[in-house]
Amino acid sequence: MKDAKAKMSQAVDFAREEFAAIRTGRAHPGMFNKITADYYGAQTPLQQLATFQAPEARMMLITPFDKSSVNAIEKAIRESDLGVNPSNDGNSIRVVLPELTEERRKEYVKVAKTKAEEARVSIRGARRTAKEALDKLVKNKEAGEDEIARVEKQLDAVTKEHTEKVDEALKAKEAELLEV
């Protein structure tokens, strides 16, 4: 039961992280979580290479710790799926986010729904694994059927609770994306 709860919580956390990476009309450092840059031959996450500041709602200022990595970071952002064109002044990189079109917003909502479904599938997988373990206990006569039925009800309640958390996060992200 504890293992199933932990896996379900991880699925909810994963969904929230994925939602944070989906671009809305505002700039935030979470947009750059999945981007890596070639730093001395190794793919390194941008969070380890620079600091992020949002001086304006639709602008991100990225200041690398090592000035020699400016071009690599700029290239990584340009080639990412963010759809932005960064510019650098030799010391820092400016990323200006264009206004999202309605079509692009709807596209991002679809992406968010896909990520939510992946999280739900993961939650159901954790439930299935726990249920199989419970069935094995009954089969080996290590626990009574009444006790297992009670635990299965708890498992269903936990599953429902975590699925609702994913749905709430999706609803919040959808509202954020469709807000003009």
From TrEMBL:
Lineage: Bacteria, Bacillati, Actinomycetota, Actinomycetes, Propionibacteriales
Assigned protein family: Belongs to the RRF family.
CDD domains: RRF
A Gene Ontology term for the protein's cellular component: cytoplasm
Species, as recorded: Parenemella sanctibonifatiensis
Protein name: Ribosome-recycling factor
Function description: Responsible for the release of ribosomes from messenger RNA at the termination of protein biosynthesis. May increase the efficiency of translation by recycling ribosomes from one round of translation to another.
Pfam families found in the cross-reference section: RRF (PF01765)
Subcellular localization, as worded in the UniProt entry: Cytoplasm
Keywords, sorted A to Z: Coiled coil, Cytoplasm, Protein biosynthesis
SUPFAM superfamilies xref list: Ribosome recycling factor, RRF (SSF55194)
Domain of life of the source: Bacteria
GO molecular function: ribosomal large subunit binding
Domain Ribosome recycling factor per the UniProt entry, residue ranges: 16-178
Coiled coil regions, renumbered to chain: 127-168
BP term (GO), one: translational termination
UniProt-listed InterPro entries: Ribosome_recyc_fac, Ribosome_recyc_fac_dom, RRF_sf
Record-linked HAMAP family: RRF
